[in-house]
Specification:
The complex is a heterodimer of chains A (611) and B (98). With 611 residues, chain A is an alpha+beta fold. Chain A is built from 8 helices and 28 strands. By secondary structure, chain B is of the alpha+beta class. In chain B, a hairpin with a 4-residue loop joins strand 1 and strand 2. The mean pLDDT of chain B is 85. The chains are: A alpha+beta (611), B alpha+beta (98). The interface between A and B is large, with 32 and 45 residues.
Chain lengths: 611, 98
């Protein structure tokens, strides 16, 4: 309800001096409590109110606005000639010079300076005072703790921040960094979001060195390793574009929409070729397309990620792996968690898919072969990172523990074969050194508070760039231990990979045998069982001797229960062997008759031990 | 008397590795130089400010001290600066070990 108080004043009286006077209080409105309103409220008893008798303080922080600075030099062209002399007039200049030279002071000064100068010059010629002593003697490697420090942070200059989805280093040295920015959240890009991607100069984080303006935001950006002026980008709308930095910010050429991918082109990679202009790309629409940048009108080749080469069933891919030393083979990591190894030059289209590696529960976001051991590769997906060997198809040979946050990107160190890096959704970067520690990362760094989306190590192995969800790219420098090869490193890593591969092979063989046995049993042919149990013996060396027992066991219990029983039986056997007090003896005797079924296994177990 | 100056300059130039000699006054005017004018002016202006800054540093730390010699070693050569009250002499010498 509105409370209104009206007062009037004559127009003629406006602007007149105010005369204030006291008067008694006047009651304008009296609002009595409305008992009906009480029904809208529930009485609360008891009531909890916090009281504190403390000085109220508040905290504010302020940051000055970023001051844009630029560096410029001044070119000095002519000295500070006195006013009356025109520096361009040669006569005046020479006259002035001659005048100065006649000055007594000048001559004595020059003589003095000359002598001291000569002294230094002779010194220089005598010995090189900056000589590097003991250059060829390698310093003893001090084992310092692994560490990394942030050198620079490149922020997205736009108001609306986009995720830094892909980073590519300049091929000729760590001077520049190309970062692709794109808002990956489905349909959450506002129309004002900029579509630009930037090339940053490492020394200048205030302003990008160059802007690339695509027609649709870039998801992936790669420098051509052969020609450092050419960049290839995969767009959010599926097109592929390439830029020449000498020609400006607009793409030189774009692929037509009809021929491009139907989903964002998540990964584009340059191929090793004579012309250096070939590349291929993949996307979650399940296609792998090959292009030649000189003719972007249509793809030179096409492949679907499906065994039967059917587009409808093709699995979408997030990442590509290509090693220039193996030009016809490549691998893709799919949304379904499979890693598909393909051969481009297969005889029939159906043979193009060479092998599939399953094991990841979620999409595979990154894939890379170890630069020193190309048979082994790293894959990042769901909550763990896995290392695979090409020969073992069934499972990875090594894997990290389950992380609590999702992994987004990873790569090997180009210098040290045992080191790899991971980025996670909680903004941390993990550095793993498998020679140093296998169950935990060697170094965990909290790079920022928002999820990290992309990662790239520079060729020298010393610098690492990580891109985050708010468009911030952080440049980190690693401690020396992480980029210089340790003693014997190659041998240790080789040994480790071989050991794990062998272990997987053995486990694999065992599983196959068990499966064969099961199948054999259900079919009911004993001959097969005999044969397989012999193989069993060779593979295991221990348990091949109990064919009859095993069959009975399998018929009755499943493997898990069997393992449990074996375990307890071995414990009991041990217990029996030891001198026990009378109580235990009773227990043992009580259990004795129950163990009839297991007696045989016991006996066998003991014979095995003797063996 | 200017002969003596010529002599000195000639002697300095005769040393191994010396590329050039410049004598500059306080106004930044190269009075004598064995390099061409634009280069001399360039050196003169840059060195002048550097030398005065260096002198300022020495003086600030200890007011009784003064700058006697300044050597700037770079990857390609070494710039030697001998300062005086009103003038200074700049010599550019190439690295003897190369």
């Amino acid at each position: 309800m509105e409370i209104v108080y009206v007062y009037t004043k004559k127009r003629a009286e406006f602007g007149r001096q105010c005369n204030f006077s006291d008067r008694a209080a006047e009651l304008h409105v009296d609002i009595a409590p409305d008992d009906n309103a009480l029904e809208d409220f529930i009485e609360r008893d008891p009531v909890d109110i916090g009281i504190q008798c403390v000085q109220e303080m508040s905290e504010h922080d302020a940051n000055t606005e970023r001051f844009e600075t630029g560096a410029r030099g001044i070119n000095h062209t002519e000295g500070g000639w006195p006013k009356d002399i025109n520096p361009h007039e040669v006569e005046q200049v020479t006259r002035y010079r001659k005048k100065v030279e006649k000055d007594e002071m000048y001559i004595s000064a020059v003589l003095q300076l000359g002598t001291s100068m000569e002294h230094c010059i002779k010194q220089n010629n005598a010995i090189d005072i900056y000589e590097e002593y003991f250059e060829d003697v390698n310093a003893e490697t001090i084992d310092e703790a692994a560490s990394a420090k942030t050198i620079n942070v490149f922020r997205d200059p736009n108001e609306i921040k986009r995720t830094a989805t892909h980073i590519s280093w300049f091929p000729d040295g760590p001077r520049k960094l190309a970062v692709a920015y794109c808002n990956l959240q489905f349909q959450s890009t506002s129309p004002d979001t900029s579509m630009d991607s930037y090339i940053w100069d490492v020394e200048n984080p205030n302003k990008p060195e160059m802007t690339l303006k695509p027609v649709s935001p870039l998801v992936c950006l790669e420098y051509n390793p052969k020609d450092s002026h050419i960049l290839l980008g995969g767009c959010y709308n599926g097109q592929i574009a390439y830029w020449d930095t000498r020609k400006g910010s607009q793409p030189v050429e774009l692929t037509p929409i009809e021929q491009s991918h139907r989903d964002p082109a998540y990964k584009t990679v340059w191929i090793q070729s004579k012309t250096g202009t070939e590349c291929f790309s993949t996307s979650t629409d399940g296609q792998v397309l090959w292009w030649d940048i000189r003719k972007m009108g249509e793809p030179t080749d096409k492949m679907y990620l499906d065994k039967k080469q059917e587009f409808a069933n093709a699995q979408g891919a997030y990442c590509l792996e290509y090693e220039p030393t193996m030009p016809t083979k490549f691998m893709t990591g799919t949304e379904q968690g499979n890693i598909i190894s393909c051969n481009r030059k297969a005889k029939t289209p159906l043979d193009k898919i060479a092998a599939t590696f399953t094991g990841h529960i979620g999409p595979v976001y990154a894939l890379q072969r170890n630069p020193h051991f190309t048979k082994n590769f790293l894959s990042i997906g769901d909550w763990c990172a896995r290392i695979w060997s090409e020969d073992i198809r069934e499972s990875s040979i090594m894997w990290t523990k389950q992380y609590s946050s999702y992994l987004t990107d990873g790569c090997w160190s180009p210098i040290r074969p045992a080191v790899f890096f991971l980025t996670k959704m909680d903004g941390t970067l993990d550095v793993w050194d498998i020679i140093f520690k296998q169950n935990n990362p060697t170094l965990t760094l909290q790079v920022c508070d928002v999820p990290l989306y992309s990662l790239r190590v520079q060729e020298s192995g010393k610098l690492v760039a990580a891109g985050s969800q708010d468009g911030t790219t952080t440049l980190l420098e690693l401690s020396e231990g992480l980029y210089s090869m340790a003693r014997n490193e190659k041998n240790l890593v080789t040994a480790m990979f071989e050991r794990e591969t062998r272990r997987e092979k053995i486990l694999d063989a065992r599983h196959r045998e068990i499966r064969l046995k099961e199948r054999g049993k259900t079919e009911g042919s004993k001959g097969e069982k005999r044969g397989s149990s012999d193989d069993f013996k060779q593979a295991e060396g221990e348990e091949g001797e109990k064919p009859a027992e095993e069959e009975e066991q399998y018929q009755e219990e499943d493997l898990y229960a069997k393992a449990e029983k074996e375990f307890f039986s071995i414990i009991e056997a041990e217990k029996k062997k030891q001198p026990t007090p009378s109580q235990d003896f009773d227990d043992v005797e009580k259990k004795g008759p129950e163990e009839d079924g297991e007696e045989k296994t016991n006996g066998n177990a003991e014979t095995e031990n003797k063996d | 008397m200017s002969q003596e100056i010529d002599e000195i300059i000639k002697r300095i130039m005769a040393h191994k590795g010396v590329i050039g000699v410049i004598i500059v006054n306080n106004d930044g005017i190269p009075l004598r130089s064995t390099l061409e004018n634009s280069q001399s002016v360039h050196y003169a202006s840059q060195i002048h400010s550097l030398a005065s800054k260096a002198r300022g540093v020495i003086r600030e730390i200890d007011s009784s001290n003064d700058l006697r010699f300044l050597r700037v070693r770079s990857t390609k050569h070494e710039i030697l600066v001998a300062p005086d009250h009103d003038y200074f002499m700049i010599v550019i010498q190439k690295d003897a070990s190369n």
